[in-house]
Amino acid sequence: MTVNQTPWVSRFTPLLNREEIRKRVEVQPEPIPNIGNMSALEAIGRLERALSETFYPNAQCLDILLLWVAIAWGHSLEIYESCRAFVEGVHRPHPPLPEFCFPWCLTGLAGTGKSKLLLALERLLPSLPKIQVEDLTGVPLTSYRSVTVRSCSTPRGILTRFADREGSVDVLTEYLRRLAYRDGWSLVLLDEFQFATQSSDASARVTQMILAMCYIGVPAVYIANFSLLHKLNSRNQEDRHRLLGKVQILYPDRNDSEDWKILLSRFRNIIPDVYTFDPENDAQAIHNLTGGIKRNVVKLLCIAFESEFANKREVDYPALERAYKSREYATFRDDVEALSMLYGDFRKTRKDLWCPIEAVVSLTDDVDRQQERRNLVDMKVLEASMTCEERKALANLSNKAVVSRAKKGRPKTVSKDPNKSDAKQLQENIAWFLDELHPRT
After folding, report:
1. What is the largest CA-CA distance in the chain?
2. Which residues sit opposite 220 in a β-bridge?
3. Confidence at residue 109, expressed as pLDDT on a 0 to 100 scale
4. How far is 223 from 103, CA to CA, in rounded Å?
5. Counting Cβ atoms within 10 Å, is residue 131 exposed (0-12), middle (13-18) or buried (19+)?
6. Residues 235 and 243: beta-carbon distance below 8 Å
């Protein structure tokens, strides 16, 4: 059996394809027939469930799912080289897993579909029966393990959820490492940290919980909202490097994207006789009402339907506008409007609406900073080579330069010659300085 034919690896191979992923994770509920003949309570309940179950994987979702599958595939390829190596690993005192796996973080605005993406991954990853391996009885193949944090507030609590047994942190960690290796775990997943972030020491607790998961030795993914990311970003350097080194942001769909229009079509098709808004022509306007956030869209559609249901009216775009102005949508409306004002002091008050680590330094700014660092180093080298008298003379020249700039305005800057090495440039700078310091007569 070759490496690529081992069952631990081959179970993921068919999933390394975007179209295959799309087919396996997409969920489109059947249209609800005769919804107008139902009671209001039944109609609204069925509609809300159908809208919530709808999952259309846009380009971002497919990219993230493909990456997660590739991570699982790569882990299996590295750890399970052959059946013989697997048997040897099972009989070792300590399983041949990494001591620590740096985690991946999925973040984004509340309601963009982070938890739904995790559920899509669970639908996607294979669940195979036991396999027969030489010298062992049937061995299960478990692609992933997931835990919903909720009321857990300690590392021991998280490990107890994974292990389904009690014990100390050390005992549970060692047990989980053996279990993960034997059963072929390739990913561990954590969700719903928001319930563990209410206390004053929330960032320390969550940090310990995530790290406890990472010591199992299997690639890990945890979901965090922006509020939690701000808390983690305030931790010390070593924690930030470990927890925030691999962050993916799930953004709302753009108002002009094809994915956004298709999503609106999928929602409309659940009750096409009632929903008569135009997914193509109304796409940008509906985006303005919802910010492109899927949870907001579902809420808006439900409110509009409930408002129009009693009068047997269709839900067109004006009905959506009325729903947007309703009291039931007020909280969502406040967030949508706040997203357009995230600057200045207001930005500091709404940390739940922006990611603290998404800012990217432009190439020009980075080059400028590098040049400033070089200039500073050059000056320090120059000063270190001077005698006491030369340092005093330099100070006098600096004072004269300040007076000169005040009279003449800002001087022209001289760019470094790209054809000269740093050492050659420094030598010429020193020669110029000495000439200024001791002018020839």
Report:
1. 106
2. 188
3. 94
4. 10
5. middle
6. yes
Residue 322 in tokens? 């009325």
- Residue 193 sits at the vertex; the CA angle it makes with 191 and 199, to the nearest 5 degrees, is 170
- E-assigned strands of 11-143? 104-108, 127-131, 139-142
Which residues, 6+ apart, have CB-to-CB distance to 82 below 8 Å? 1, 3, 6
Predicted pLDDT of residue 127: 76
pLDDT tens, position by position, 104-159: 999 999 999 999 999 999 999 987 767 767 665 677 789 999 988 876 778 999 99
Q: Which residues of 63-87 are buried (b: 16+ CB within 10 A; e: fewer)?
A: ebbbebbebbbebbbebbbebeebe
377-436 pLDDT per residue, tens: 455 555 656 667 666 666 666 565 444 544 444 444 445 555 555 555 655 665 665 555
- The Cα–Cα gap between 297 and 279 comes to 12
Cβ-contact 355, 224 below 8 angstroms: no
Strand spans (E) along 21-162: 104-108, 127-131, 139-142, 144-148
- Least Cα distance to 105 among 285, 254, 195, 240 occurs for 240
Query: Beta-carbon neighbour count of residue 10 at 10 Å?
Result: 17
* C-alpha pair distances (Å), 116 with each of 54, 120, 180, 293: 10, 6, 25, 13
**What tokens appear for 393 in the block?**
């003379």
Q: Radius of gyration (Cα) for the chain, nearest Å?
A: 30
Q: pTM (2 decimals)? A: 0.78
3-class secondary structure, 152? coil
Place of tokens 């929602």: 267
Average pLDDT along the chain, 441 residues, taken 10 residues at a time: 71 93 96 92 95 96 96 94 87 92 94 94 84 68 86 86 92 95 93 66 85 95 92 90 93 95 97 95 96 96 94 93 96 93 81 78 41 51 63 63 47 50 58 55 48
- Distance from first CA to last CA of the chain, Å, rounded? 87
Query: What is the 3-state secondary structure of 368-386?
Result: HHHHHHHHHHHHHHHHHCC
Token look-up 């500091």 returns 348
